[in-house]
Design goal:
Layout (H helix, E strand, L loop, with lengths): L4 E11 L5 E8 L3 H5 L5 H5 L4 H9 E4 L7 H5 L3 H14 L7
Antiparallel strand pairs: 1-2, 2-3
Length: about 100
């Protein structure tokens, strides 16, 4: 059976407005629409790097006790956590180039 969800633990964690730290989460495999839909977003048209924020907010299905992971949540990730998630995304979706 194909595994479609993968658990992760952020290096630092997301600190919410109430001071709660959220580190453990789940990311699902990406679908074509997860990469197509952000291209229609005006934030991506003005800044192509913003596509990463939208894609991650779509594929992270759980993060700590948060009800949902929105682009605003992803915007507030620490840089090391964003980098970790980008690498994790590439790894589980087999987007890494083979050496």
């Amino acid at each position: 059976m194909l595994q479609t969800e993968f658990e992760f633990t952020l290096p630092k964690g997301y600190l919410d407005a109430d001071g709660n730290l959220h580190r453990k989460g789940v990311m699902r495999l990406s679908r074509a629409m997860d990469e197509i839909i952000p291209l229609r977003d005006p934030r991506v048209k003005s800044n192509p790097a913003y596509a990463t924020v939208i894609i991650l907010s779509r594929v992270i299905t759980r993060l700590g006790a948060l009800e949902e992971v929105t682009p605003a949540v992803v915007e507030d990730f620490f840089a090391c956590d964003l980098s970790y998630l980008q690498n994790f995304y590439r790894l589980i979706n087999e987007l890494e180039e083979e050496n």
